[in-house]
Amino acid sequence: MKSSVIVFPGSNCDRDIAVALEKMQFKNQMIWHKETTLPKSDLIVIPGGFSYGDYLRSGAIAGKSSIINEVIKAANSGCLILGICNGFQILTETGLLKGTLLRNKNLKFINKDVYIKVMNTASRFTSKYQNNQILKINIAHNEGNYFTDKKHREELQKENLIAFKYCDESGNISQNSNPNGALDNIAGIFNLKKNILGMMPHPERMVDKFISNDDGVNLFSSLIN
Q: What is the phi-psi region of residue 185: left when phi exceeds 0, alpha when psi lies from -120 to 50, beta otherwise?
């Protein structure tokens, strides 16, 4: 399976995701944001980091980069797109995903391991997980507070487009287990066709049980299959 990782000025998780992809036997290429063509790809990843230093707002400038038109074309043709953290923010800036990521409720940068619950396994990103499985995944963001309008919120629920929700170690979903104030504890969502996933937690950091854990592995094994 062929993957492409888009690299922006300020990306700092691009090498992490590349290591995870290659470990899972993806044939990966790194694509600089100024490129105007994409190699043939089964998966395109927009990684975490601080593209353009989060100038203006997170993902705003990256959403106008030269390569983004090709990413949008690929997404519309059915290519799998994964946006992690800043990548999720960029996907909302491009309109590939609805909603926005606001400042964390405590107005501070958060970097810690949290628990998330798998809400939908009927996707090419999550099929190797079990419904309601609890994962321990790292977050590192200043703007992870997901918000959307009432109409889209209803669509997310009706069409089962919520991929992950923040929870506690026992799987309880509440404000106490919500690290950033995200609407309905949302940690990740799909588009309507489910070929695009945006998520704030970093699964690429959880692919080695000797360093952290391997709770992120099944996202990549879902994709490779």
A: left
